[in-house]
Design brief:
Blueprint: H1 20-40, H2 47-65, H3 68-77, H4 84-90, H5 95-116, H6 123-135
Helix pairs in contact: 1-2, 4-5, 5-6
Length: about 140
Amino acid sequence: MSTPIHSSIRTPDDIPHQPLSELVEHWSSARLRTFVATHIEASTPTADDLFAELAYGTRIAQETTSGRWCVVADLLRTRNATSWPEIGAAMAMTGLEAKAGFHEWVVRQTRLRTTTGILGLTNAEATALHLLAEEVSW
C-alpha cells in the first residue's frame, strides 16, 4: 500500500523514503488531478496537488539520476567512452559540463571516503579515474 499524499508535501525533502514505483504512483496521481482540474473541470488545481506534483517529479529525477556518474566511471574503466561530447549528449549536457561534473563527482567521492572510511573512492581510484577521463577525446 502506498503512502497517501499529504498537504505537507512542499519539497522533495518532505517525501518519506519509498520505492521509486511509489514515487511515480504519487506523482502520477497528483499530475492526473491537476490535469483533470485544469483541462476537464475547467477549475484551478489545488496548491497541494501542484506542490506534490512538483516535489515528487523532482524526487523522481533525483533518484533516477543519482547513479549517472557511476555509469560514466564504468564507461571510462571499460574504455567504451569515445568522447566527452558523446557522454554529455547521453546526459543532456555539453561535453564540458559532463567532464567538469564527473571530476567534481570524483572529488566528492574521495571526500566521502575520507569521512566514512568505507564509502566513496580511494585516492588511487580517484587518480585512475582522472587519468582515464583525460584519455577521452573532445
